[in-house]
Amino acid sequence: MDAITGALLIGTWVSSLLYTAELHQAMYYYRHFERDNWRLKTLVWVAFFIDTVGLLDNYVRVYLYTITHAGDPTYLLNQNLSSPVSVFTNAAVAIVVQTFLVTRYWKFSHKHFIALFLCLLILAGFGGSFTCGIMVVLFPSYKDRFKLEIPVILWLVTEAVADLGIAAALLWEFLRTRSTSNETRNVLNGLVTVTLQTGTATAVVALAAVIGFLLNQESNICVGFTLCLGKTYMLSMLSNLNIRKSARVWNPSTSKAATSTTLSTSVAFAQPGTGMDTNLSGLYAHRTTTVHIESQQERHPGSITIKSSMHGPEHTTDIEMGPLSWRKEVEGLNFNAY
């Protein structure tokens, strides 16, 4: 009983806790990033809905085992119809999240062959999970679990390899990026941390599930781990989206709130013909530029405020400048272009 209903019950408890965190992250995302691309918001909503269906399916399965058919040895010898539903929902959430991350990597690096290889791993994992669901329907008895060995290994191992591969590819690109902006470096450091944590988390859960299956194929220990798999994937995607800094600023051209990061840079000028530093000669320039992390159709020029106190009272002049070249440093961090 411990290996059959106990593992399911514990897995449902843990998945419920993860779903609470997922719900909080989803609410934060829709509240703070309203101006994200509608396709990205729809993708998040679809994945969240599928994962919610999976959680409800887990509750139904546990209720049938522990309440409706409690003490029925014949029923406990077979997997009910909730089992393949759980497999299908986990597979759907996994392919959505992994596709999102691979697309993000491809847009950041434009490395087609690596992205294609990762997509093949994702498709292999999805095929293995779909095969598992079909075989559970055809062979519901626990004593027939050995027939699922190959598709289970294909499903969980390829998903783990794909997750680690995506994380490694993103980490490589993030670590190779060089920036002179402290703000951009902070964003990249945050992305490195989140990518490492979320990529390894999903891989660890998948590997734990396959190890549990190989140790005891007729128990639900492996199922207890897979109940948490969809929630882990959703937290992975939402964590990558919510790492952005959200602030509401006034955009003079659109008169709408936008998510932005403000960078300030002190610029030193030399006095013509002298080579002197402006801080010594009395000329000082301070530039404040707003960089929109989310995609915008127009790049608004920055402004330079020049203060001069060399001759008489201090004068202040505002000069509008064209697009700044360093904006390309954060162009690859666009989250909306999905």
TrEMBL record:
Q: Which UniProt keywords apply?
A: Membrane, Transmembrane, Transmembrane helix
The record places domain DUF6534 at 160-246
Q: Which InterPro entries match?
A: DUF6534
Q: Where is this region: Disordered?
A: 294-323
This protein's source sits in the domain of life called Eukaryota
Q: Which residues cross the membrane?
A: 6-30, 42-65, 85-106, 113-140, 152-175, 187-215
Q: Which PANTHER family match?
A: CHROMOSOME 1, WHOLE GENOME SHOTGUN SEQUENCE, DUF6534 DOMAIN-CONTAINING PROTEIN
Q: What is this protein called?
A: DUF6534 domain-containing protein
Native species of this protein? Mycena venus
